[in-house]
Amino acid sequence: EAEEADGGAVSYALAKLGMSEILAENIFRPGGGTTLEARIRSWALFSSYLRTLGRGPLNYVCALLRQTDAVSGLLSVLVAHLPTPGRRAKATASPEDVVSLRDVVTNSRYLGEEDYVTRGAAAVYRSLLHLMPASVGSWFTEIKNRQMISDIEKYTSVNETPRLIGLELETISSRGDLEVVALHNKSQVVTRYRKDDSTLELVIKLPGSFPLRPVEVEFTSTFGFGEAVLRKWLLSMRSFLRNQDGTIDDAIYMWYQNVEKQFEGVEECPICYSIIQPSDHTLPKLKCRTCGNKFHSSCMFKWFSQGKATCPMCRSLW
Ligand SMILES: [Zn+2]
Ligand SMILES: [Zn+2]
């Protein structure tokens, strides 16, 4: 299955993104012959390209990448070369001095091999944190080595988190019945939603090592909404924030659209309990011919790829 997903990502990259074959191979399935320098240069080039994409296409590519182990594989290699506290004595580059992706692509500073890898790793890591925070976060939760966890967390919280939180809070905006306010001094976002006479206030707290550790979501005040619906909304806000790559502002907006769709009477997908799919933002469209329930294509893809062949709800053959 992984093989197939990788193949799909490679052909998408070649056909739709116009990537060269070598670049696609270096990104999606680097072999034993691919040097670390080549991988870092390829990723610097690819990330520069991803930064030019709008929200929709970027989300699509990130969702595609998540079906492969391209990002987690790269991160596991990169972290060994980051100028973390334990390594800094040996490395000549300091983390305060992260070079740009462009510098990594062209090596305009004519860095030696070791310097290039250290600085390139830091630059690519920074861009991944920015472009796909949820993917980096889920890779981080899989790490078993405690020393490594602590090194990466320290490095990230000192060198990357303050900048990232600043960028996140800058993009926060209110829409329709949704008022969103950034509290810069507390690294929090307050969301107020009003519907008729009912109001709801949610606080999103960004942790000190964001986005490695997940954001926290809490209600601070509720008025007029039932307990079941509130619980559902809290879970769906968490899910949008943790499962999608993109900004917090995006996640809040997706959550808002999900709530609005619920008031319009759209039924949620019985697999992920959401109307808007939390990672790829599609609506439930695949309908079971027997029970009539509608599911997201990506939720059904996951279901079928676990070897199942029946409807998750009524168990009839799909
Ligand atoms: Zn679903
Ligand atoms: Zn069914």
UniProtKB/TrEMBL annotation:
<comment type="function">
    <text>E3 ubiquitin-protein ligase. Component of the ribosome quality control complex (RQC), a ribosome-associated complex that mediates ubiquitination and extraction of incompletely synthesized nascent chains for proteasomal degradation.</text>
</comment>
<comment type="subunit">
    <text>Component of the ribosome quality control complex (RQC).</text>
</comment>
<dbReference type="GO" id="GO:0008270">
    <property type="term" value="F:zinc ion binding"/>
</dbReference>
<keyword id="KW-0808">Transferase</keyword>
<dbReference type="GO" id="GO:1990112">
    <property type="term" value="C:RQC complex"/>
</dbReference>
<protein>
    <recommendedName>
        <fullName>E3 ubiquitin-protein ligase listerin</fullName>
        <ecNumber>2.3.2.27</ecNumber>
    </recommendedName>
</protein>
<dbReference type="InterPro" id="IPR054477">
    <property type="entry name" value="LTN1_E3_ligase_6th"/>
</dbReference>
<dbReference type="GO" id="GO:0016567">
    <property type="term" value="P:protein ubiquitination"/>
</dbReference>
<comment type="pathway">
    <text>Protein modification; protein ubiquitination.</text>
</comment>
<dbReference type="Pfam" id="PF13639">
    <property type="entry name" value="zf-RING_2"/>
</dbReference>
<keyword id="KW-0862">Zinc</keyword>
<keyword id="KW-0833">Ubl conjugation pathway</keyword>
<dbReference type="GO" id="GO:0005829">
    <property type="term" value="C:cytosol"/>
</dbReference>
<dbReference type="GO" id="GO:1990116">
    <property type="term" value="P:ribosome-associated ubiquitin-dependent protein catabolic process"/>
</dbReference>
<dbReference type="InterPro" id="IPR013083">
    <property type="entry name" value="Znf_RING/FYVE/PHD"/>
</dbReference>
<dbReference type="Pfam" id="PF23009">
    <property type="entry name" value="UBC_like"/>
</dbReference>
<dbReference type="InterPro" id="IPR039804">
    <property type="entry name" value="RING-CH-C4HC3_LTN1"/>
</dbReference>
<dbReference type="InterPro" id="IPR054478">
    <property type="entry name" value="LTN1_UBC"/>
</dbReference>
<dbReference type="InterPro" id="IPR001841">
    <property type="entry name" value="Znf_RING"/>
</dbReference>
<feature type="domain" description="RING-type">
    <location>
        <begin position="269"/>
        <end position="315"/>
    </location>
</feature>
<dbReference type="InterPro" id="IPR039795">
    <property type="entry name" value="LTN1/Rkr1"/>
</dbReference>
<keyword id="KW-0479">Metal-binding</keyword>
<comment type="similarity">
    <text>Belongs to the LTN1 family.</text>
</comment>
<dbReference type="GO" id="GO:0072344">
    <property type="term" value="P:rescue of stalled ribosome"/>
</dbReference>
<dbReference type="GO" id="GO:0061630">
    <property type="term" value="F:ubiquitin protein ligase activity"/>
</dbReference>
<dbReference type="Pfam" id="PF22999">
    <property type="entry name" value="LTN1_E3_ligase_6th"/>
</dbReference>
<dbReference type="GO" id="GO:0043023">
    <property type="term" value="F:ribosomal large subunit binding"/>
</dbReference>
<keyword id="KW-0963">Cytoplasm</keyword>
<keyword id="KW-0677">Repeat</keyword>
<keyword id="KW-0863">Zinc-finger</keyword>
